[in-house]
């Protein structure tokens, strides 16, 4: 699938209320905005379930600057604002950079899902991280920024 096809597919699914895709831009001081990554809320399920999954990526050049934790926090807050109850993030156990994101945001490890997703030609295990609306006493973004400033 080409990038243009991916964008068209995401737009079609977004109009149907199935996904929430966001481009992540970053504007270094005095420079033009740069497209540096993506956050996508998918698997949106309403009704008695009220859940969704969040996936994300960032260009390695921009990793480690707090860009993706901020974007994922904003996406999670949006999920709760639109009435979803549960947000899940599945991460391969060896992906230390993504694990750092969920720990910074206060997601809790729920468990391992064996052979959960097909990645690079193989079915790979993923650890499932979760937040529910009851667990969030302040916005996810506010909590992340507060903890970040406390570490200062």
Explain what the structure shows.
- This protein is of the alpha+beta class.
- The protein has a single domain, classed as Gcn5-related N-acetyltransferase (GNAT) (Aminopeptidase, 3-Layer(aba) Sandwich).
- It has helices at 3-15, 67-81, 96-105, 140-151, and strands at residues 20-26, 34-45, 51-58, 86-91, 108-119, 122-132.
- A six-stranded mixed sheet has the order 1-2-3-4-6-5.
- Helix 2 links the parallel strand 3 (51-58) and strand 4 (86-91).
- The mean pLDDT is 94.
Write the layout of secondary structure elements.
Blueprint: H1 3-15, E1 20-26, E2 34-45, E3 51-58, H2 67-81, E4 86-91, H3 96-105, E5 108-119, E6 122-132, H4 140-151
Parallel strand pairs: 3-4
Antiparallel strand pairs: 1-2, 2-3, 4-6, 5-6
Q: What are the key terms here?
A:
152 residues; Aminopeptidase; 4 helices
Quick gist of this model?
The protein has four helices and six strands. The protein has a six-stranded mixed beta sheet.
